[in-house]
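Recall that a protein's primary structure is simply its ordered list of amino acids. Everything else, from secondary elements to tertiary packing, is in principle encoded there. The following example makes that idea concrete.
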Amino acid sequence: AGTDSGDLIQLTLNSSDEYKEVKIANFLSISQSVISSIHVAEDTGRVGIRVLVVSEGNVYVIDLRSGCSVKRMSQFKGGVAVANRVCSSGRMGLSFVFDEVESENWSSSVGGKLMKRLGGGIQANARIKGSSNFSSYDNSNGGSVFVLAMARQLVFVDLCNSDDEKMSPCVVLKEMPCIEGVKMIAWLDDSLILGTSNGYYLMSCVSEHISLIFSLRDMVDHPRLKVFSKEEKALLVADNAGIFVDIHGQPVGGSLVFRNSPDSIADLSAYVVVSKDGKMELYHKRSGSCVQAFS
């Protein structure tokens, strides 16, 4: 969990037959500004849990296995949001790779060697073609691939599993131009959903084409969207209403009407949890009814 004051809180759930208790495992001071985006890398059993945090244009990697060490990634200055890829059922591979480059300098680089192993190559302004079992690489090598929004570009990055503290924990796989003002991002299959102050947009990882899903009636400081991996859809919030869309940006599965415009959204089994000004509400995904509210 991230706070407005730049702190990261790690919580643990202790369960027993009689009760469940939530405890604070770690409390880390990351920056002096709001934590705007958090990405938890999958624990592969070899590298432990790592967390990527975005705060005030800076990207941090927190290693929870080694005393909660914090590294600021200076090469990603200006980052605003981060997201990992959610694959739909039966889709294990990433459907794009990069044009291969026969440059000796590129081939000998870390990124070049990585993409060679993936069956492709990378260069500046590369065009996309073909296919590659990208996700199987991710799972078998202990890495965690995510996308970072910064300025007017998207950066696809692999969070490596190296134990060498001298090496950068991240390898840049690809950069793509995008629209300006992206504040939130979701990655579903080969589609990206971009949230801005004036609307939500759909971007294809394959063609790089960007289209408007819908615009917001009033400018907002921070758009709200949430990916629901099991349902393979995303919830886009406009004012106090949440609209479910699929990987093509098409409305699916109805909508939710909240009592207030939420500050944050969470997924809890068959329910959507939203919070506002220290109050939390629990909504049923299918019926849309508020089943519980507490503060």
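DSSP finds three helices and 24 strands in the chain. The two ends are 17 Å apart (CA to CA).
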